[in-house]
Amino acid sequence: MRFTKMQGLGNDYVYLNCTGGLPDNLPELAVRLSDRHFGVGADGLICICPSERADFGMRIFNADGSEGAMCGNGIRCLGKYVYDKGLTRKTSLLTVETASGVRYLELFLRDGLVQSVLVDMGRPELSPPVKLMAAGRTWQAVPVSVGNPHAVVFCGGVDALNLAELGPALERHPAFPDRVNVEFAQSDDRGGLKVRVWERGSGETLACGTGACAALTAAARAGLVSRHTTVHLPGGELEVRWAEENGHLYMTGPAVTVFEGEISLENENYRCVREKNAVQ
Ligand SMILES: N[C@H](CCC[C@H](N)C(=O)O)C(=O)O
């Protein structure tokens, strides 16, 4: 199976061109391809699909096989994929249908290849703050939907947090029946926003596009930052603007092709090793 490996700020996905049809059992395929020992290695799988409502469709699966409704870093790379591979000649108002609606992309080129992408992420939905017990203490979180669910926690010393313990406890908190992506955010002394993300279905990632948008929304609503702010993630920076005029979020950031590859899928030994480990 041929694939393309791409990343946005280190949030990396395996891309399959499915404009001619989708493979069977996408959740299992996502697990196999995402495995960093037995597969390609990625935060998940993204399929480029045909669409009747837009120029292309996008389906995104996390590393555990669960399907996401939207992916900010992933959709920027999809824009790069379809332009660089000649599947479109559009560089503005490129439309992509996702499970959370149609998104609009602007592609920015250098030397004929896409370098960065602006995405209209639509309108966020904020809910009142909730108090969550996790890892022996109470956390206040702001639920924000950007097409997918997020819980934004503001706290100091974000770098020192033990996300391996905190992340799963909040991701799977009973307050979120479909699980949730969790952002730990603090405003920095330059008016920016520093964010670490524990992603639903993938664990801590170097960046999360929808997470950066959710964190900006909650921080701007709380008056911590302006509505047009640089979000600093471990993998790099995203520019996010929550527009006054129409309430939409606009996210701008890089998109990178890492390598093209081909994987043989007949190798089943990974399954028994994983199942054996799971059993132990
Ligand atoms: N884990 C997310 C999907 C990937 C989102 C993230 N990679 C981004 O860049 O927005 C979810 O289950 O909703």
From TrEMBL:
It holds the Pfam family DAP_epimerase. GO terms for cellular component: cytosol. The active site is at residues 71, 208. Coiled coil: none annotated. InterPro entries: DAP_epimerase_AS (IPR018510), DAP_epimerase_DapF (IPR001653). It catalyses: (2S,6S)-2,6-diaminopimelate = meso-2,6-diaminopimelate. GO terms for biological process: lysine biosynthetic process via diaminopimelate. Pathway: Amino-acid biosynthesis; L-lysine biosynthesis via DAP pathway; DL-2,6-diaminopimelate from LL-2,6-diaminopimelate: step 1/1. SUPFAM superfamilies: Diaminopimelate epimerase-like. Substrate binds at residues 11, 62, 72-73, 148, 181, 199-200, 209-210. One of its GO terms (molecular function) is diaminopimelate epimerase activity. The record marks 150, 199 as: Could be important to modulate the pK values of the two catalytic cysteine residues. The keyword Iron-sulfur does not apply. It is found in: Cytoplasm. Its EC number is 5.1.1.7. Keywords: Amino-acid biosynthesis, Cytoplasm, Isomerase, Lysine biosynthesis. PANTHER family: DIAMINOPIMELATE EPIMERASE, DIAMINOPIMELATE EPIMERASE, CHLOROPLASTIC. Catalyzes the stereoinversion of LL-2,6-diaminopimelate (L,L-DAP) to meso-diaminopimelate (meso-DAP), a precursor of L-lysine and an essential component of the bacterial peptidoglycan. Belongs to the diaminopimelate epimerase family. Homodimer. This is Diaminopimelate epimerase. It comes from Pseudoflavonifractor capillosus ATCC 29799.
